[in-house]
Amino acid sequence: xxxxxxxxxxxxxxxxxxxxxxxxxxxxxxxxxxxxxxxxxxxxxxxxxxxxxxxxxxxxxxxxxxxxxxxxxxxxxxxxxxxxxxxxxxxxxxxxxxxxxxxxxxxxxxxxxxxxxxxxxxxxxxxxxxxxxxxxxxxxxxxxxxxxxxxxxxxxxxxxxxxxxxxxxxxxxxxxxxxxxxxxxxxxxxxxxxxxxxxxxxxxxxxxxxxxxxxxxxxxxxxxxxxxxxxxxxxxxxxxxxxxxxxxxxxxxxxxxxxxxxxxxxxxxxxxxxxxxxxxxxxxxxxxxxxxxxxx
Length: 296
What we know:
Elements: H1 10-42, H2 50-58, H3 61-83, H4 86-92, H5 96-107, H6 114-134, H7 145-165, H8 172-211, H9 213-235, H10 238-261, H11 271-291
Helix pairs in contact: 1-3, 1-4, 1-5, 3-8, 4-10, 6-11, 7-8, 8-9, 8-10, 10-11
C-alpha cells in the first residue's frame, strides 16, 4: 500500500493540528459522557447479566445516550487520527477521566470533592506541559510492513505475556496493574491500526477501507483491549489499574507514532518539562482513580 505523505504550508499544518486536537478532546468528552450515562442506566436496573441485563438496559434512555456517546467517541478519534499525529491525539484522551467525573457528578447527584478539582487541574496542566514541550508533528497515515511486523509482534507479545503473568494466584493489585498495562498497549495498537484504516478510507473510500487488513486488525485488538480492561477492573482496585492504563496508553501511542508513522517530538532539554508533565498527570490520575468508586 502506498504511503500517504502530505505537503502542506506551515499555516495549514497548524490548522490541521488544531483540528486534530479538537476532535481528540471531543472524543474524550464523548466517551466520558457515554461511560457516565451507561453507569447511570446500570444503577437503575436489577443486578444480573446476559440478555436479561441488555433487555433492561435497552429500555433506559440513559443507556441509549451512553451508547451514542461511545460511538461518537470512536468517530471523533478516527477523525483526530487521520488529521494529526498519534503522539498528539492519544495523550489527549487522558482527559476522559476528568470529563467522566465532571459529567457523572451532577448526573449521579454526587458532590465532587475539592481534592478531585485539584487532581483535575494537575492532569490538565500536566497534559498541557507535555504536549507543549513535545510539540508532536507528523503527516503520515500509513506505514510499510517492515515497520508493522515488529510493532505487532512486540505489542501482541506484551499483551500475551501479561495474561500469563496475571495468573489468578497472583496478588490482586499486581494482576490489576499488569492487565491494565496490557489493555493500554492494546489501546495504543488499536489507535495505530485505526489511524491507518482511517487514512485508507480517506484516500480510497469504503471499498479500500474494507479491503485493508488494518480495518479488521483494529476491531480485533480493540475487543481484546476491552476484555483485558474488564479483567483488570475485576482483579483489583481502580487505583492500581487506572494509572497504568492512562500513562501506558499515552506512552505506547507516542512510541508507535514515532516508530511507525515517522512522527517527531522535541527531545534534549525539553525532556525535563515533559517528565514534569508526566508526573503531574500520574499524580492527578491516581488521585482521581480514588474518587471514582465514590461516584457510583
